[in-house]
Amino acid sequence: MAVVKARNQDVDMLARLLRAEAVGEGEYGMLLVGNVGMNRIRANCSDFKGLRTIPQMINQPHAFEALLHGMYYERARERERRLARRVVNGERNWPAKFSLWYFRPGTAANPLPCPPTWYDQPHVGRYKLHCFYEPTAEECASVYGLY
After folding, report:
1. 26-43 vs 8-22: helix crossing angle, rounded to 10
2. pTM, two decimal places
3. pLDDT for 146
């Protein structure tokens, strides 16, 4: 059962985002990006109040580097659709299990250490090049009881 209502076109949108944001991180990295997106929709806190759909989450201004840099144009492939369906259906993975933010410091050739906070949220883990940040329970208790 889906934790976020999603039409086939929404799953395709999410699949395109996973590919654009984290194809270099492999399937697990793309799942983590999807986890952050689902958390943003479900949490209703911080910068993500009022988001209820995948299109709203993806099109939120300045939310994803891939959209800012025109990397979101690729068509959805079945591999990414399958991953998108997994996160829409509630699969959560560490370190993005409760994260609302991720960030890739440096470049692929020269990765930098993860900053201790990002948008005032503490660093909780890293997967390959991406650093993940989750809110405190005081800031966003709803993210911890979502699924």
Report:
1. 120
2. 0.93
3. 53
